Amino acid sequence: MPEIHVVQKHNRHLYENHLDPYFRLRHDIYVKQRKWTALDRPDGREIDQFDTDDAVYLFCLDRGQLIGAMRAVPTLSPTLLSDVFPYLSIRGPIQRPDVYELSRVFVIPERRGEHAGPRIETMLLTAIMEYGISIGLTGFSIVLESWWLTRFERCGWKAHPLGLPQMMDDMAVLAVLVDCNEATWRSLCRQIGRTGPILTWQGLSGVDRQLLPDISLLHSPNVQPTQ
Ligand code: COA
């Protein structure tokens, strides 16, 4: 089963071998495949102004190979919504300690879709919900293409539009706020066949976080509260 690792400024040194491939993969996927040419850089790495010390990454690793990832940036720091697409939010960009902005979700082409195990993309959506609850978030803001909405609906993510969609390169793009809560996380755990937390917090024992429960125990008759 692939593992999903939290990578941030305090443990980044443990993932040095993965960081360069990560930024190169982003270049392959977003610049070469998706043709987001504004992100092109001559060094073949897709790195932008939001890849700062504040950024948190989820790396999905399978036997050491990076097969998918996602980025989360605190909304008290500059974000895509505040600095690049502020017009997508009618009431202005969200800037709150309990909301992070998600971006750069990807799975390498060979691992997309259904395989023997759960969809890697659904594992990432489960893992980021776990991350959010663990550090006390209540939501995620996202600038996304509208095709995500049906996918979110299907997996149980509740996305609230922050403004009207705008056409960009023939694609409807909008900003949403997604609820981050334990009910959604539990539902996702069931979808991917897991009964508890999946995140690996290597080198992050100092991070103050809430521990999530084993949901199979919550449903077991043996752990009903005593009268
Ligand atoms: N435009 C429209 N629909 C898209 C799409 C796109 N650019 N990318 C994926 N989809 C749709 C597919 O049509 C497919 O729908 P279907 O199952 O009804 O045929 C569905 O999403 C599944 O996509 P697929 O790529 O097969 O598998 P996945 O669910 O494992 O992975 C992503 C989804 C988005 C993680 C993966 O497609 C990816 O890494 N894409 C490149 C990175 C990217 O564009 N990320 C989003 C912006 S940050």
Written account of the structure:
The longest helix has 18 residues, at 16-33. The chain is α+β, with helices and mostly antiparallel strands. It has 6 helices and 9 strands. A hairpin with a 2-residue loop joins strand 7 and strand 8. The chain is globular. Strands 1, 2, 3, 4, 5, 6, 7, 8 and 9 form a 9-stranded mixed sheet that branches. Helix 3 runs antiparallel to helix 5. The structure holds coenzyme A (COA). Coenzyme A is lined by residues 29, 34, 103-107, 112-113, 119-121, 147.
- Average pLDDT, rounded to a whole number, is 94
- Name the poorly predicted regions: 220-227
Structural class: alpha+beta
Number of strands: 9
Bound small-molecule species: coenzyme A
Give the overall form.
globular
Strand content: 15-25%
Largest sheet: 9 strands, mixed
Task: Count helical runs.
Answer: 6
Helix content: 25-40%
Alpha-carbon distance between the two ends: 40 Å
Computed over alpha carbons, the radius of gyration is 18 Å
Secondary-structure element series: EHEEHEHEHEEEHEH
What's the arrangement of secondary structure elements?
Blueprint: E1 3-7, H1 16-33, E2 56-62, E3 65-74, H2 80-83, E4 99-107, H3 120-134, E5 139-145, H4 148-155, E6 159-161, E7 166-168, E8 171-179, H5 182-191, E9 199-200, H6 215-219
Parallel strand pairs: 1-9, 4-5
Antiparallel strand pairs: 1-2, 2-3, 3-4, 5-8, 6-8, 7-8
Helix pairs in contact: 3-5
Bound molecules: coenzyme A.
